[in-house]
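Example 3.2
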Amino acid sequence: MTKRAWKPNVTVAAIVFRDSRFLLVEEETADGLRINQPAGHLEQGESLLEAVCRECREETRYDFEPRFLVGVYQWPRPQGDVTYLRFLFAGELAGHDPARALDRGIVAPCWFSIEEMRASAARHRSFMVLQCAEDFLAGRRFPLELITHCG
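Structure, written as tokens:
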């Protein structure tokens, strides 16, 4: 039997903070309805910045303009089957198309205060949802120039 090469699952996520609220999404998962930042997997041929803009647009109908890298999060799931490498970007909304279809599995975009996020932690897709919001509120900001796309 040939052993398959291990690799992490690279994901991107968007933090949008407006009027003291975070843009989140409600999504259907194998564990039921969960709350997450607009997020998803890096696709072949994409830069990280292209991926986070696409994911935000597909999941919220908003156009996202990244301004900062908030952090990079490595999370091996407790089940041991997958390790996620999440790149979290903070930015602003640039436009909205209410007629655009939402990505499969996304129920709706929604806005939560940090207090509402803390109170709903049991419904989060993972612990990273709250951790990312807390890191943003703590002032973590790194210039986008930290990321170099060589493709």
